Amino acid sequence: MSPTIGLPPPCAETCLDTSRVSRFLGGTLIAEDVRDLVEHVRRMSDADAYRPWRCPACGHATLHVHSRPERHPKREPSLPPVVTVLQFRCADTECGATWRILPLFLARHLWHAWKTVERVVRPSAALPKATAPPVPAQTERRWRARLGSTARVLCALLAASGGAVLTEVAMIVGLDATRGALVDAFQQVVGGAAGERLSPLAGLIHRLERGLRLM
Ligand SMILES: [Zn+2]
Question: Is the model's pLDDT at 127 over the cut of 90?
Answer without folding.
Answer: no
